[in-house]
Give the backbone structure.
Amino acid sequence: MAGRSRAEMQLLKEERERRMQESSERCLGLVENCLHVGTATATELYTQGETLNRTEQKLDDIEEDLKTTSHHLRGIRSVFASLFSRSPKTEKENDRMVSKEVPVERLDTDLMRQKANDLAWDASSSGCEDAVDRNLVGVQRGLEHAKVLALELGNELDRQNSQVERIAEKTDKVNDQIIGQDIQIKKILRK
């Protein structure tokens, strides 16, 4: 350092400040991109959750229709039995599983609508340190938002995983009921 002039030292300092400011701007840009991707993911998860809700409701409707169909099949079997003087065979009723209602957690819509301009830094700063400080504050705020968003996404994924498991169970149950009713119809038609 003894061999460097004051002008060289000043140039090195300015170059270091410029690189530091560029680095903080890149960090800020990455955080903004992270929030953008997280918000897009949250929107897609919300849409997926609505689809899962409709699917589960339709399965519940199908299950109710199958109960009605089962009742009608017993009546038809009874009519056929009386026509052919046969006594109807007793049949085991399918155990009905009561669906558990889980409160639907919604993603924090205010968080999803958070604008990236909260993170922006003022380009008209009065010095490199001020600009870097503002960028770092923006990075900090962005990371705090990203953390909350990640937690909300995790909660929504947990809720949807439970719902997918319920849907799979209901689908298996409805499928078994349809197979059972198909067998009953074939038996009735053979009489």
About this structure: Residues 6-88+100-190 form one domain.
